[in-house]
């Protein structure tokens, strides 16, 4: 996977209590261009989920304190984390255990020991569903097409000129058309949590994106929701 801007790099939360296994997975995920947050137990995992929601959770079943099953259950119970894909790791190979893991809310179930390459492929598969722009997918909405791999945007077949920030902003909006994003959420997703940028900067770049999207004609596809934020469509 090509290196992405830190704000667009897919974020993986890795919850695994075995240090050697956790470090190995984190190393391989980062080598593939992912941003990784590590947690050694379920309690750390819960804190990480609240502080910096990931795009995908890789979660060990057997954890000290809050178990992987319980963590998955809590994640599914909260509206803000309900849609995050979960890949559960477990040494339990019985079909009944797999069914239990999936029924609890896991999207995938990987039996230990596993090949790291296979797990990376499963992470990418979940990302294609959750955040397609991060894995080079082509996004389409009405007459707008965004190619995340070549960084090309067209509207009604005409190539548009977008700056890198406007491109990332459009990619986020196109991944979930209709969703209203607050300025703070867009700052986190487009600029990154470490960026010291004022929320008014979002308004400036939304204005630039609007201008670029309408440069060749067509109606304004961006919606400003007073007191809430912005959405596409």
What's the layout of helices and strands?
Blueprint: E1 11-15, H1 19-31, E2 35-39, H2 42-51, E3 56-60, H3 68-77, E4 86-90, H4 95-104, E5 108-111, H5 116-130, E6 138-141, E7 144-147, E8 152-155, E9 158-159, H6 164-175, H7 183-191, H8 199-213, E10 222-225, E11 229-232
Parallel strand pairs: 1-2, 1-3, 3-4, 4-5
Antiparallel strand pairs: 6-7, 7-8, 8-9, 10-11
Give a brief description.
The protein has 233 residues and is of the alpha/beta class. It contains eight helices and eleven strands.
Describe this structure in words.
A hairpin with a 2-residue loop joins strand 8 and strand 9 (158-159). The chain has a five-stranded parallel β-sheet, with helices on both faces. The chain has a four-stranded antiparallel β-sheet with strand order 6-7-8-9, with helices on one face. It is built from eight helices and eleven strands. The protein has two domains: 11-132, 3-Layer(aba) Sandwich (Rossmann fold), CATH 3.40.50.2300; 136-232, Arc Repressor Mutant, subunit A (Orthogonal Bundle), CATH 1.10.10.10. It has 233 residues and is of the alpha/beta class.
């Amino acid at each position: 996977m090509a290196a992405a801007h830190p704000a667009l790099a897919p974020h993986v939360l890795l919850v695994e209590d075995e240090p050697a296994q956790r470090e190995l997975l984190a190393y391989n995920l980062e080598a593939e261009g992912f941003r990784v947050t590590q947690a050694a137990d379920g309690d750390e995992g819960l804190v990480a989920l609240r502080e910096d929601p990931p795009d995908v959770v890789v979660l060990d079943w057997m954890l000290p304190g809050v178990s992987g099953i319980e963590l998955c259950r809590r994640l599914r119970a909260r509206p803000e984390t309900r849609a995050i894909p979960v890949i559960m790791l477990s040494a339990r190979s019985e079909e009944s255990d797999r069914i239990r893991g999936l029924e609890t809310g896991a999207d995938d179930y990987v039996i230990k020991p596993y090949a790291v390459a296979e797990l990376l492929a499963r992470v990418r598969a979940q990302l294609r569903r959750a955040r397609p722009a991060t894995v080079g997918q082509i996004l389409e909405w009405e007459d707008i097409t965004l190619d995340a791999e070549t960084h090309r945007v067209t509207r009604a077949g005409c190539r548009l000129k977008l700056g890198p920030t406007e491109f990332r902003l459009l990619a986020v909006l196109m991944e979930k058309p209709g969703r209203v994003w607050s300025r703070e959420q867009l700052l986190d997703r487009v600029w990154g949590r470490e960026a010291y940028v004022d929320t008014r900067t979002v308004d400036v770049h939304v204005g630039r994106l609007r201008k670029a999207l309408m440069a060749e004609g067509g109606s304004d596809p961006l919606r400003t929701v007073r007191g809430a934020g912005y959405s596409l469509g």
